[in-house]
Specification:
The protein has about 500 residues and is α/β, with parallel strands linked by helices. It has helices spanning about 10-15, 25-35, 50-60, 95-115, 125-140, 150-155, 160-180, 195-200, 225-230, 240-245, 260-270, 275-280, 285-290, 305-310, 320-325, 350-365, 370-375, 375-385, 385-400, 410-420, 460-470, and strands at about 35-40, 85, 140-145, 185-190, 210, 250, 255, 300-305, 330-335, 340-345, 425-430, 435-445, 450-455, 480-490, 495-505. It folds into four domains: about 10-215, Rossmann fold (3-Layer(aba) Sandwich); about 225-280, no CATH class; about 285-345, no CATH class; about 365-505, Trna Endonuclease, Chain: A, domain 1. It is built from 21 helices and 15 strands.
């Protein structure tokens, strides 16, 4: 068997050291044939850096690395080009001054590679000089590859002033690209987030954003076909459903995509775990939610493409940032008035469970982990053990520090929704029906359906009456186990009260 390329983003190393490789080289030809300036946004550890390195090897004419791949017989190997690759994924940059020095160091590195002298001292002017002198020396246009273009901003996104200063340095760097167009053969820029063009790429109007282009939806990550074709010898048939539930589900409008980092570590360890989630840093998202008084992302929103791109230092949409960083993915698309609108969801069990458990850890002063907090709730829901369900929910509310409580329905719903969602069961909030909106609906693997209506300081009977009067259960009447629950939270006693009823066919 070949080796698993865990954490390896060097195309040459993968192709020469006996690693598996999922062939994405047809995208190289497609990009070059159809344009010159590209931008791609994808979450971390989805293979962006590997694809950038694949582009580098192709333009440098390293045909021997492409033996047996699509590009071997679909590329002009008689022509090669000088390549400048700049990556901002090398450690954390804490200030605009550090960023300028970082860029200067990269420019110095490439000047040594091409044996040219750089005289300019200002970072963006020295970048211009680098590209121009490489062109002069080689008499060939330069290929520019920029990887993780936004990392210096994301690393400082909580510090608005610092992030804004860093943004201005990057803006100066990227705007230089427009002035050296005549010396450039091809430009490919990748990152996690999609900061507004006016913020970073002002004037670079020719930059084509392929992040939501269906034709490039499979460029990063693994499709199921690619997974089985490349790694089939390591996967037993009975494993597919589990791998799919845990690590599949990302969608950029083409095929459903598996998280490659998760898949590789699962194939190595043969156990399900939150591999990708645990290597990330969701603290920024958690703090943003805290700043919004624990208002969870609204997964019932239909967002325009402009909304999905609405991430900037001065204004951050939690839903957009969670989508761009990989904690949410596109669920549905609809078109109205010649505009597309997108509905988001958690992509798979790994993210759904881990993110919501992380929120609970921030909520609760005495969190004891999944085994003691989540598993008992799962079992109680599957067994319709109302006493245990009530105990678990009230324990949750009792353990939330007093100063974090809101006295409105939205706050209580947020706490309860996160708790129920962390079970990994199918759970939705604010689900629209013909007569109203269901507060929370949950479906267990053994096909029990729970419909919850939540009130605050109201008569308990009113919650149950609302479910009945508005027939929230109407579309589920063919199911065998439909359970409705009216709930009322008493703010003085800090306690939830319940009324249960089962709807029979």
């Amino acid at each position: 068997m070949k080796k698993l390329p865990i954490g390896i983003s060097s195309f040459e190393e993968i192709r020469t050291e006996g690693y598996y490789y999922v062939d994405k080289t047809h995208f190289v030809k497609k990009l070059v044939d159809e344009g010159k300036y590209y931008f791609l946004s994808r979450p971390r550890r989805f293979g962006k850096s590997l694809f950038v390195d694949t582009l580098k090897s192709a333009f440098e004419g390293k045909k021997e690395l492409f033996t047996g791949l699509y590009l071997e017989n679909n590329w002009n190997w008689n022509q090669n080009y000088p390549v400048v690759r700049i990556s901002f994924d090398q450690g954390k940059i804490r200030s605009s001054n550090e960023l300028e020095e970082y860029i200067k160091a990269d420019i110095k590195f490439w000047s040594k590679i091409y044996e040219i002298d750089i005289t300019e001292k200002i970072y963006y002017k020295s970048f211009f000089e680098l590209v121009y002198k490489i062109y002069q020396k080689t008499r060939k246009k330069v290929v520019l590859l920029v990887d993780e273009y936004d990392k210096p901003i994301l690393d400082n996104i909580e510090k608005k002033e610092t992030a804004a200063e860093i943004r201005e340095v990057l803006k100066g760097f990227y705007q230089t690209i427009k002035g050296i167009d005549q010396y450039l053969k091809f430009v490919f820029i990748t990152g996690i987030s999609k900061f507004a063009k006016i913020s970073l790429f002002s004037g670079l109007n020719q930059l084509e954003d392929i992040s939501l282009n269906q034709e490039y939806g499979d460029l990063c990550g693994y499709t199921e076909k690619e997974l089985l074709l490349t790694f089939g010898e390591r996967i037993k048939e009975q494993e597919i459903e589990g791998i799919r539930n845990w690590y599949n589900g990302y969608w950029w409008l083409s095929s459903k995509i598996y998280n490659p980092f998760d898949v590789l570590l699962y194939l190595k360890n043969k156990s399900y775990s939150s591999y990708w989630y645990e290597t990330g840093n969701p603290e920024v998202l958690i703090k943003l939610i805290q700043h919004n008084k624990y208002e969870i992302p609204n997964l019932e929103l239909m967002l325009s493409e402009e909304d999905l791109n609405r991430v900037d230092v001065d204004k951050i949409s939690i839903e957009a940032l969670m989508f761009q960083t990989g904690y949410l993915t596109i669920h549905k698309v609809k078109e109205e008035y010649s505009r597309k609108f997108y509905k988001l969801k958690f992509p798979n069990k790994e993210v759904q469970i881990s993110f919501n458990e992380n929120l609970l850890r921030e909520f609760l002063k005495d969190w004891k982990g999944e085994d003691s907090e989540i598993n008992p709730l799962r079992k109680a829901l599957e067994n319709f053990d109302t006493q245990e369900i009530e105990f678990r929910i009230n324990k949750l509310l009792e353990n939330i520090p007093y100063d974090l409580y809101g006295n409105d329905e939205k706050s209580i719903k947020s706490f309860l929704y996160v708790y129920l969602y962390s079970t990994g069961f199918d759970c939705n909030a604010e689900l629209h029906t013909k007569l109203g909106r269901i507060d929370i609906i949950l479906k267990t693997p053994n096909k029990k359906i729970y419909i919850f209506e939540i009130k605050v300081d109201k008569h308990l009977e009113k919650a149950l009456e609302q479910i009945k009067n508005k027939e929230y259960y109407a579309k589920y009447t063919l199911e065998e186990n439909v359970i409705i629950c009216g709930m009322n939270f008493n703010t003085k006693k800090r306690k939830m009260y319940y009324m249960w009823e089962t709807i029979y066919r």
